């Protein structure tokens, strides 16, 4: 297949590159083999050879390729309660809303309805890869992986582990530590088999919910399983001051050090939130290659804080963006890009009237739309250690086609000479799902809006 058009891709966190009117030549696996620029000698030859063929796709005026977005943290079952209960603290929210809802996913018909709707919605919002928490049920978790496989989304799916008998309600917890580990292992094996049948890949993820819901034995056992099968790992780390203090009290160390001791921090690990990491914790993330799933909408509600993303990026920590449905209400990474920029700005310039201006906020916290775009694309790919999130040779063709002239959703662009960077920023701040005309994963079209 060959695609022709202008594409945006991150080069560095602060720097976006526009590839103007290029030809993107894919191989049968959906990998970008060659990118030809108009000035390249072969450009005209390839164009002539492919023009008019079924395997050639040319963008029209006002259409652009963006890398597909990577949602680095999302609770699939919580899609059913998205938009509700945004006014109660994390612990109450888990007990009164979330655990009762998640317990219903023992019903596969209910699970199917919610999961099909969610995966379809994410694709329509430009999300081509997602790192999912499912529930404690291995059958329903496997169903989510199957739905990703069917719909062509690259899904990373975790059966959630919550084995502590004191900390979890009787109606929603693993039967025992042994059962939690055995279910996780058979889930991993099943998804590895399913993976072989897909082009885009679906992957099992070792998923302790967070330290407060797991026993030490389960945490250590999960660390071993991740090692044995070389899987990804996900959990929540230092999300709220309640959680942070709970772990300190139980383990006499920070969340980050406790997870590390259990073998849960490594290159393929992604920890959600990390708002309360100390500098030492952050050093441990950088050293082990552990990534942060930055969930800027959710953080407003459950962390009462802002991740110092710019500072952690400077320290060399991989960061991607997550919706954290339903701690965050929106399935859209566009909304989270916007919130990431807004929140960082408020961290830098937060007002505390008791302090002199010089002591307010955290200096150099602001990020530009370029960095938020980096987190949603290249940063997510780097976090997952896969060649996704960039439009470069030897990266996978996961893209969204943005149309700034969609009828009834036209972006306000009145300057024909608008710079390419301003154009991207308009796309990031103002696009709606109507502007996402097509979505491709691994070279296959998985969503089309006519
Ligand atoms: N910590 C433990 N479980 C959850 C969850 O479901 N959502 C969020 N935001 N934090 C959690
Ligand atoms: Fe979460």
UniProtKB/TrEMBL annotation:
GO terms for molecular function: guanine deaminase activity; zinc ion binding. It comes from the Bacteria. Its cofactor is Zn(2+). Keywords: Hydrolase, Metal-binding, Zinc. Gene3D superfamilies: Metal-dependent hydrolases (3.20.20.140), Urease, subunit C, domain 1 (2.30.40.10). Its EC number is 3.5.4.3. GO terms for cellular component: cytosol. Binds 1 zinc ion per subunit. Pathway: Purine metabolism; guanine degradation; xanthine from guanine: step 1/1. GO terms for biological process: guanine catabolic process. Residues 66-445 form the Amidohydrolase-related domain. It catalyses: guanine + H2O + H(+) = xanthine + NH4(+). SUPFAM superfamilies: Composite domain of metallo-dependent hydrolases, Metallo-dependent hydrolases. InterPro entries: Amidohydro-rel, Guanine_deaminase, Metal-dep_hydrolase_composite, Metal_Hydrolase, Metallo-dep_hydrolases. It holds the Pfam family Amidohydro_1. Catalyzes the hydrolytic deamination of guanine, producing xanthine and ammonia. NCBIfam families: guan_deamin. Belongs to the metallo-dependent hydrolases superfamily. ATZ/TRZ family. This is Guanine deaminase.
């Amino acid at each position: 297949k060959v695609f022709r058009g202008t594409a945006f891709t991150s080069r560095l966190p602060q720097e976006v590159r526009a590839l103007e009117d290029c030809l993107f030549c894919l191989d049968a696996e959906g990998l970008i083999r060659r990118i030809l620029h108009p000035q390249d000698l072969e450009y005209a030859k390839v164009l002539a050879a492919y023009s008019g063929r079924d395997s050639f796709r040319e963008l029209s005026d006002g259409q652009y390729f963006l890398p597909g977005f990577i949602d680095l943290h999302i609770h699939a079952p919580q899609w059913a309660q998205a938009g509700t209960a945004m006014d109660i603290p994390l612990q109450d929210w888990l007990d009164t809303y979330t655990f009762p809802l998640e317990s219903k996913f023992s019903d596969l018909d209910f699970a199917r309805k919610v999961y099909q709707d969610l995966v379809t919605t994410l694709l329509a919002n430009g999300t081509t890869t997602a790192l999912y928490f499912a529930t404690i049920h291995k059958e329903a978790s496997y169903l989510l992986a199957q739905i990703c496989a069917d719909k062509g989304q690259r899904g990373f799916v975790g059966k959630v582990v919550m084995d502590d008998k004191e900390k979890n309600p009787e109606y929603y917890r693993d039967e025992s530590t042994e059962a939690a580990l055995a279910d996780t292992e058979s889930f991993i094996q099943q998804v590895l088999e399913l993976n072989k049948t897909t082009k885009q890949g679906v992957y099992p993820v070792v998923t302790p919910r967070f330290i407060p819901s797991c026993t030490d034995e389960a945490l250590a056992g999960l660390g071993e399983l991740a090692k044995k099968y070389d899987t990804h790992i996900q959990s929540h780390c230092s999300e709220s001051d309640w959680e942070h203090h709970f772990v300190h009290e139980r383990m006499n160390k920070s969340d980050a050090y406790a997870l590390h001791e259990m073998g849960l921090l490594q290159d393929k690990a992604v920890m959600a939130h990390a708002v309360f990491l100390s500098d030492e914790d952050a050093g441990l993330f950088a050293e082990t290659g552990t990534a942060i799933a930055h969930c800027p909408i959710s953080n407003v509600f459950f962390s009462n804080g802002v991740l110092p993303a710019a500072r952690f990026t400077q320290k060399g920590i991989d960061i991607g963006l997550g919706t954290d449905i339903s701690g965050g209400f929106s399935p859209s990474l566009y909304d989270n890009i916007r919130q990431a920029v807004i929140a960082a700005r408020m961290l830098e310039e937060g007002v505390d009237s008791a302090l002199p201006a010089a002591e307010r906020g955290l200096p150099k916290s602001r990020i530009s739309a370029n960095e938020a775009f980096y987190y949603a694309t290249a940063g997510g790919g780097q976090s997952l250690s896969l060649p996704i999130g960039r439009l470069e040779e030897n990266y996978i063709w996961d893209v969204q086609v943005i149309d700034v002239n969609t009828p009834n959703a036209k972006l306000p662009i009145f300057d024909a000479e608008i710079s390419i960077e301003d154009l991207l920023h308009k796309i990031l701040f103002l696009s709606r799902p109507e502007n996402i005309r097509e979505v491709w994963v691994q070279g296959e079209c998985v969503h089309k809006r006519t």
